[in-house]
Amino acid sequence: MVKTFNKNDVFALGLISIIYLFIAYRLEFTFLSFLSELPSALFFISEEMLPINWGSYNNYLTPLLDTFCVAIVSLVFSSIISLCLGFLCSEKTMHFKWVRNIVKSFATILRNIPNIIWALMFVPAFGVGITTGIIALTVGNIGDMTRFYYETIDEVDLELLSSLKATGMSHLQVIRFGAVPQAIPGFISWTIYSLESNIRSSAVIGLVGAGGIGMYISNNLSLMKYNTAAMGIVLIVTCAIVTEIISNILRKRII
Fold this sequence. Notes:
The protein is mainly alpha-helical. It has ten helices and no strands.
């Protein structure tokens, strides 16, 4: 059966088109201007960034290792904090609605501030380097991970929790022996996903001075060593792809 457009579809399409045109007008952006600028951008890449300075990979090994360390350390900190907040947000483990609302609001605020903004705020406070990167990523991740965890807890079997409670277990024992075992696969899956996201984010926040390979790429760009910076970009993309493949395999084995 062939579906045809009805009046609602036409109205929605028209409304979306008007909104897009308004935004494009405000930004003074047109598809034609993009096409006109595209050749010069491609020329810059081919002339300045290519051929890639493959021999500079040695200089990136230490910053790349720093990036992994920042991602892992911040993941550990944010996981521990988010796990505690997750139990405070879930209807299955926290009976006081006002507590859930306060913690959820706190997590929502953190979640809506990008990691790079956290890094920009913390660089003046803590200085340039690895410590700032760990703090920025930890704070930035808490919002997302708290949501991942409490949604996982919300999906546990309520009947099992009720039956455990009926046996005389305390509230903490019900959480320990009922909610936690059911939620562990989800916790691990989301933590692996967060690690994958963390590695990408740790490279990005390095561009504003939070350490790691991003800062090294930024330095090379500032010195107009574009083909050396391109080597760093290739390494980041490669590491992100490898991490994604490994995390997908691990998640499939767990779930």
